[in-house]
Design goal:
- By secondary structure, this protein is mainly alpha-helical.
- It has one domain (about 55-345).
- Helices cover about 75% and strands about 0% of the residues.
Length: about 350
């Protein structure tokens, strides 16, 4: 079966990367191997959107304990990081929209969606607005954001390697066995995950399968209703899932448009890294925060993808998730508003 083949390649890639002590192994290894295999023409099965949604629910729930701690210790440093994040979003959208429109001959709607530094699923939800993006636009927008996430994973991996950042790799078996000791709160954790998923399905907010469980679990952890953190195997499975999804999308995209779209996305992503790096250097000294932590907090990507990287590298996941949550809420307001303006202008 194609789905078994996909999962086999994803696990194999992740296992090889883990055994080689590569950073972010289960995400990076599964992504690279599935992309190579799919690009070579081997038929792989793209995991269903429902599986991806529940993996996002798990990640959102996992982040709750860290965000609760971060909110409890909210201070001027956190406010400075959030301010830097919002400022970087405005700068990226203003420069990115012009770049994609002028150099990649995209429509105003496509250029706007490609320049927004949000998660892939949220961008795809916004891309469903037929006033600004045609059905044929979705693969192009997906490719630009997928290349951005891949570039982020590779780039942060290199930074972590050169500055010798401590990661939470542990022994190979720890990726699966850590945290599996029976605990009375396991049932509460399951209820929390199901509640977050059902709430996200009911409200149908773009990106809600991460943000709503994140908010719900943050409240549960902050009030002491739940104290048990998510088992390591959940994080590992989520990494494998996202890695295989991104790998399949990257390996089966619109190949005739690959060269210009990939080059354009890489150039824009590099510019986004430079902007994020400059903000991180400036605010890391002012706010007394680590450079890599602040860089990931400002990185162009979704909460789930960035949080998985932070978890693997043992960084301050709470602060990073909190900043990305605030940025996501800002994009949720700016994104639809910008599409209305663009959509209205396109009719004139």
């Amino acid at each position: 079966m194609p789905i078994i083949l996909t999962l086999t390649f994803a696990f194999t890639g992740g296992a090889i990367a883990a055994l080689l002590n590569a950073p972010i192994p289960w995400l990076l290894g599964s992504l690279l191997l599935t992309a190579v295999v799919a690009g070579a023409g081997i038929k792989l099965h793209q995991l269903s959107s429902n599986i991806e949604k529940w993996m996002r629910v798990l990640i959102g729930t996992t982040l709750g304990v860290s965000v609760a701690d971060s909110i409890g210790s909210f201070n001027v440093q956190s406010l400075l990081a959030i301010t830097a994040s919002v400022a970087s979003v405005v700068l990226l959208v203003l420069t990115g929209s012009r770049f994609f429109k002028r150099f990649l001959t995209m429509s105003r709607g496509e250029a706007f969606l490609c320049s927004l530094p949000g998660g892939l699923s949220f961008m795809m939800a916004l891309a469903s607005d037929k006033r600004v993006a045609s059905e044929g636009s979705r693969p192009r927008i997906a490719l630009v954001h997928t290349v951005r996430v891949v570039s982020l994973v590779l780039f942060v991996s290199l930074i972590a390697f050169f500055i010798r950042t401590e990661s939470s790799r542990g022994a190979f078996a720890d990726w699966f066995l850590q945290g599996l000791t029976p605990h009375p709160q396991m049932l509460l954790l399951v209820v929390l995950v199901l509640s977050g998923g059902l709430l996200a399905n009911t409200l149908s907010i773009p990106g809600g399968h991460v943000t709503l469980p994140l908010v719900l679990s943050s409240v549960a952890y902050a009030t002491g209703i739940v104290e048990l953190p998510m088992p390591q195997i959940v994080i590992t499975v989520a990494m494998l899932t996202f890695g295989s999804i991104l790998g399949c999308e990257l390996g089966t995209g619109p190949r005739h448009e690959y060269p210009r779209l990939v080059i354009g996305s890489v150039v824009y992503t590099a510019a986004a890294f430079v902007i994020g790096g400059l903000f991180a250097l400036l605010f890391s000294r002012t706010a007394n925060l680590g450079f890599l932590t602040l860089f990931l907090a400002l990185a162009p990507g979704g909460i789930a993808e960035v949080a998985l990287i932070a978890l693997s590298l043992g960084l301050d996941v709470g602060l990073i998730a909190l900043v990305h949550l605030c940025r996501f809420l800002f994009i949720m307001l700016v994104g639809p508003l910008g599409l209305r303006v663009i959509g209205g202008a396109s009719k004139d």
